[in-house]
Structure formats: C-alpha cells, structure tokens
C-alpha cells in the first residue's frame, strides 16, 4: 500500500471513530440520562478534533452525522409538526459554524497546541468556553426566531432563561476540551505526525463555506418555516404516535408531545419535557417507598395553599407513583397543581 493510500485509510478510520464517539457519546449522556450535569455533551469537542486532525475541509460532516445519528438513536423528532422541532437546524448549523471557524484558524491553533504544557491546557479550555458561548448565542437566537415574537423584550427573555443552561454548557466545554482534546492533540503530535493536518488552500475551503452558509440559510428560511406534508419522509407528529403531556400550574400551562419508548414512565417523560422546554423540576426520592415525589415544577412548589402536584393518565388517576406508571404512545399525561381530593 502506498503512503498516500495508507494516509487516506488512516484519515477514514479517524473520521469514523470520531463520528462513532460523538454519536454514542451523546446517546449515552443524553439519551440514557447519564449526564453529570445539564448540557454536558461531547459533540463540541468532536467537532474541534475532527477539523484539527483531518486533512479534508469536508470534515464538517462529522458533527452533522454525529448529531443526526444520535438524534435517531434518542428518538428526537426532526421537522415534525411544530416550530420547536425545527430548532435542529440551528443546532446543526451551530456546530458547522464552530467547525468552519476552527478550519480557518487551525494552522494558528496548532502552533499553540500539541504540547503538554499549562499554557496548552489553558488555551484549550478557553477554546471550549468560547466555542460553547458562540454556539449557545446562535441556538438561543434560533429559539427566539422560531418560537417568540421578533422584538427586543422577547429576545431578552430567551437569553435570560437560557443563561443557566449556558453556564452548565461552558463547564462542559472546559471539562471535555481539557480531558479529551488535550490528550488527543498531544498524542497526534508525538506519535502520529503523519496524520497532522497540512495547510489547506483557500480554494479547498470553499465547499465548507458553502455548506455552512446553506445550513444557516435553511435555519431562517425554507424548511425551517415549512410545515411538512404527510408525503414527506418526516412523519407528522400527532397524539396517536406520541404522548401528549400537559402541565397546568397556577396561571400557566405547558403543553408538548413526546415520543414514548420502552420503559418510559410518567416521571421520565416529565423529566424529558423539563429539559426540552427549559423549566425547573425538583424531586425527592424516598427509599422507604421506593418512589420519587415531585417537589416543584417550573418553580411552583407543592404545599402552597394546600396544593400539590398530581398526575393523570388519560384523565384517570393512577394508583402508582409516577416513576412506576408506564406510558405508551397515544396516552395523554396531565400534571395538575391542585388540592388533593380524599
């Protein structure tokens, strides 16, 4: 095998490895609920490493394939029925923007990375924070554009509500970039210099630029604002193919549809709904009862005026705790802040 073919094979193996790491990592952390804290993810560091290590500017497909693959594994709806599900275009294009910025600065970044020094660790951690901050600003802009009135007060509300998630995400950036990116870049520099990137000519960066511009354009126009037809590949979300969840508090209501999977319960769906819709959820697990009770939802705590959180499935009051009540697609779950009846 020629050196060129051997190098191309190494590049292909690296790309597949990064895609698998990103896809499985996101599924395990988010899909299986193993995040040590909210918004802990590995796609950002995979995006960075793919561009730094790979030779082709088309490595921008690494985060995109990782996101699509993990979304399919998790069961996240895409382009189905309402504006919130179309936020995926902003999440996908957000990672593509980060990849493009890295691509245009990779030569400069390599000059400061690749050696196990305190300065390298600090620079890498800073990149993690900076990339996350840029990504979160972009996706928050997407939330505002797709789901809120296009005025200044609304954008302030969106960014204020997203601030806690942004802080957690920046912590994730520091942890993953230091724990993953630093060792990988040092290893590539010391042991595998033949897969270090060479200078990419400006003309070869054009496909990457066009890809990112296309995703950005789609985020604001085209399919982002189009309600899919039933004949399209993406199925229309309905109450028959998902679970309708409604949360009724004092003067406020949150409604959504979530796809139920095997072993999903009224409680697990409530947890997923809280992450998706960005509202707080506080619970307490009682070992003596082997049950989890709801303390508060959306900052509305039980015990206020004698009211507590109660749930209903298909308008019936279950005789088991929410974490033991299995839910299937087609069911409706309603959480109500009310005074318990005897």
Beta strand count? 7
Q: What would you call the shape?
A: elongated
Uncertain runs: 80-84, 226-237
- Quick check: average pLDDT? 82
Distance between the termini: 79 Å
Task: Name the structural class.
Answer: alpha+beta
- Residue fraction in strands: 5-15%
Treating each run of at least 4 consecutive H or I residues as one helix, how many helices?
A: 9
User: Order of helices and strands, N to C?
Assistant: HHHHHHHHEEHEEEEE
CA-based gyration radius? 23 Å
Helix content: 40-55%
Could you explain the architecture of this structure?
Strand 3 and strand 4 (291-297) form a beta hairpin. Helix 4 runs antiparallel to helix 5 (118-147). Helix content is 52%, strand content 12%. The strands form two sheets. It has a four-stranded mixed beta sheet, covered by helices on one side. The protein has a three-stranded antiparallel beta sheet with strand order 3-4-5, covered by helices on one side. Mean pLDDT is 82; it is low at 80-84 and 226-237. It starts with a helix and ends with a strand. It is elongated. The chain folds into two domains: 3-225, no CATH class; 243-338, Ferric Hydroxamate Uptake Protein, Chain A, domain 1. The protein has 342 residues and is an alpha+beta fold. The longest helix is centred in the middle third of the chain and has 30 residues, at 118-147.
């Amino acid at each position: 095998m020629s050196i060129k073919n051997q190098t191309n094979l190494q590049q292909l193996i690296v790309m597949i490895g990064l895609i698998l790491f990103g896809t499985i990592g996101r599924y395990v952390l988010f899909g299986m609920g193993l995040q040590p804290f909210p918004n802990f993810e590995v796609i950002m560091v995979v995006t960075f490493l793919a561009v730094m290590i790979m030779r082709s500017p088309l490595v921008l497909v690494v985060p995109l394939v990782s996101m699509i693959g993990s979304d399919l594994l998790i069961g996240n709806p895409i382009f189905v029925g309402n504006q919130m599900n179309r936020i995926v275009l902003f999440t996908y294009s957000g990672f593509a923007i980060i990849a493009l910025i890295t691509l245009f600065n990779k030569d400069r970044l390599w000059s400061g990375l690749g050696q196990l020094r305190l300065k390298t660790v600090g620079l890498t951690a800073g990149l993690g924070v900076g990339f996350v901050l840029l990504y979160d600003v972009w996706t928050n802009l997407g939330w505002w554009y797709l789901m809120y009135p296009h005025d200044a007060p609304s954008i302030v509300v969106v960014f204020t509500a997203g601030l806690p998630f942004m802080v957690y995400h920046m912590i994730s950036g520091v942890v993953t970039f230091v724990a993953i990116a630093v060792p990988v870049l040092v290893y590539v520099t010391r042991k595998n210099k033949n897969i270090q990137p060479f200078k990419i000519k400006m003309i070869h960066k054009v496909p990457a630029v066009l890809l990112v511009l296309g995703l950005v354009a789609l985020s604001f126009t085209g399919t982002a604002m189009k309600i899919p037809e039933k004949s399209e590949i993406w199925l229309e979300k309905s109450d028959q193919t998902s679970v309708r969840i409604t949360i009724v508090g004092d003067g406020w209501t949150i409604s959504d549809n979530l796809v139920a999977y095997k072993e999903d319960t009224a409680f697990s769906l409530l947890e997923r709904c809280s992450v998706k819709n960005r509202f707080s959820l506080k619970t307490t697990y009682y070992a003596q009862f082997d049950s989890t009770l709801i303390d508060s939802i959306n900052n509305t705590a039980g015990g206020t005026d004698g009211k507590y959180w109660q749930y209903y499935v298909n308008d019936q009051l279950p005789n088991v705790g929410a974490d033991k009540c299995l839910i299937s697609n087609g069911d409706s779950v309603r959480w109500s802040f009310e005074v318990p009846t005897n």
